[in-house]
Amino acid sequence: MLRLVKGMGIKLTCVAMGLVISVSASAYDRITGKPFASRSEVIAREGMVATSQPLATQVGLDILKQGGSAIDAAIAANAMLGLVEPTGSGIGGDLFAIVWDAESKQLYGLNASGRSPKLLTTEIFSAAGLTKIPSFGPLPVSVPGAVDGWFELHNRFGRLPMTSLLSPAIRYARNGFPVSEVVAYYWQMNVDRIGHYPGFSATFMPGGKVPQKGDVFKNPGLAATYEKIATGGRDAFYKGDIARVIAAYMKEQGGYLSYEDLAAHTSDWVTPVSANYRGYDVWELPPNGQGIAALQILNILEQYDIEGMGLDSADYIHTFVEAKKLAFEDRAKYYADPAFNDIPVAPLISKEYARERRKLIDPQKAAKRYDAGVIDGDTVYLTVADSRGNMVSLIQSNYRGMGSGMTPPGLGFILQNRGELFTLEPGHSNEYQPGKRPFHTIIPAMVTRNNKPWLSFGVMGGATQPQMHAQIIVNLIDFGMNLQEAGDAPRFIHSGSSSPTGALMKDGGSISLERGFSLSTERELLERGHKLENILGIYGGYQAIMYDADKQIYYGASESRKDGQAAGY
């Protein structure tokens, strides 16, 4: 007989054969794995898709089953996410990707982020009395790069026609889909801050109401836009009617994004960069993104016995946070558009530099501030793997949830507000200039071992992403967690670091701890001078696929904090 007794915790009592066994249990205990694990890993042989919304995962899986490549499935899933999760993605935003190509046995990186409007100058900000770029409205809008990113990826690695890849999202947009729980929550939050902008309610508030969980939402404007892209290619977006509608709308709203800005847009194929962490090569894209901050953090952590410290320890959290502070000072100073700056990527991610930076960490005291080193010289994430061994790590975003609020009529999407991430500080590496890419937060990642693919993963969530990348790697390699446990494990976030937008850390910032860390750990962190707070919902959104080369199988994991799903076949 099994009996559950509820009280301060849960007691599981087993009465059998005259024996009584009582064990403490949490509400989430499972028979196998770590007590904080939400479910088992997904395991499959032929292919795997992990996205932040189950309908998008199923669309990607269908494409794989039709013979599409991992890249085909990623494009189809991303298009679907732009429909079912407009609170974090859409073709009004940018895209970054890392691809493992099984045929050439190489990694490829794609920077599909857009540039600032050529007609928007710093004098315009000065004349308006602005000391920072606004979060919403027409001024933070930059060229959306996602669609060009799709076609760059497809031209190089695609197998099925683009019409096949966009058909599922077109069908769902026309017929409707039920809104999922977390998406519904963020939808309401975004309406509260950008719902007043022209065009928004006509697209995203049917009947003048915010869609609730389970409501069937249709987006015929997005269906028509996707159809034009599917048949007319990337030029239908950047040089056709879509571009003209965007330009005309932006001019009406007092914005500066022009048809010429859209027509001139190009993506860049870039070389991923890596740092080795205990025998595993962790790969990120170079700036204008923040991916190398994760490598800088890991380079410092590698010098410590993290496994011996343990997850729930003040030693680990303190060491990690101080390493993060150091990396983010460099992030604030150096990370920007490489077309406008000579960024010292190789020195920043070198082991020698990490050894020097480590000397600044006091093991018993939290630093109030650090200086950057002296060097010479809301978002969706998805990952797909196919039966041929190809893997893609793709991240795409409007930036602040649903973006700027600028919603061109009849197109079904919102333009991003990435331009907010420039600074107006003269002489700064990330200073606003026309035709420049802003500092970017969204970062995909991969890990190889012995020059073979091992892990494709990402964690959406603004400035939390480098911290989460590093924590996932530590969870897997130092703490021996499986793929799902590595994402389910309690996380901690440090906020308040200096920023590429010009903010400076002067008080040491603060740490937010998820439930799962002990009171003794919290007390010891306070004793070392850290400030603690608890901010709900800032801990990111994780998806991952791992490849076991010996067994030739894929493991998939999806974020328990979101609506997502990993699925394979």
Automatic annotation (TrEMBL):
Catalytic activity: glutathione + H2O = L-cysteinylglycine + L-glutamate; an S-substituted glutathione + H2O = an S-substituted L-cysteinylglycine + L-glutamate; an N-terminal (5-L-glutamyl)-[peptide] + an alpha-amino acid = 5-L-glutamyl amino acid + an N-terminal L-alpha-aminoacyl-[peptide]
Listed GO MF terms: glutathione hydrolase activity; leukotriene C4 gamma-glutamyl transferase activity
Residues bound to L-glutamate: G462
Record PTM: Cleaved by autocatalysis into a large and a small subunit.
A Pfam family hit: G_glu_transpept
InterPro entries: GGT-like_enzyme, GGT_lsub, GGT_peptidase, GGT_ssub_C, Ntn_hydrolases_N
Signal peptide segment: 1-27
Top-level division of the source organism's lineage: Bacteria
Keywords: Acyltransferase, Glutathione biosynthesis, Hydrolase, Signal, Transferase, Zymogen
Pathway annotation from the record: Sulfur metabolism; glutathione metabolism
GO biological-process terms attached to the record: glutathione biosynthetic process; glutathione catabolic process
EC numbers, comma separated: 2.3.2.2, 3.4.19.13
Active site, renumbered: T379
Family: Belongs to the gamma-glutamyltransferase family.
Quaternary data: This enzyme consists of two polypeptide chains, which are synthesized in precursor form from a single polypeptide.
Listed PANTHER family: GAMMA-GLUTAMYLTRANSPEPTIDASE (AFU_ORTHOLOGUE AFUA_4G13580)
Name of the protein described by the UniProt record: Glutathione hydrolase proenzyme
Species this chain originates from: Alteromonas alba
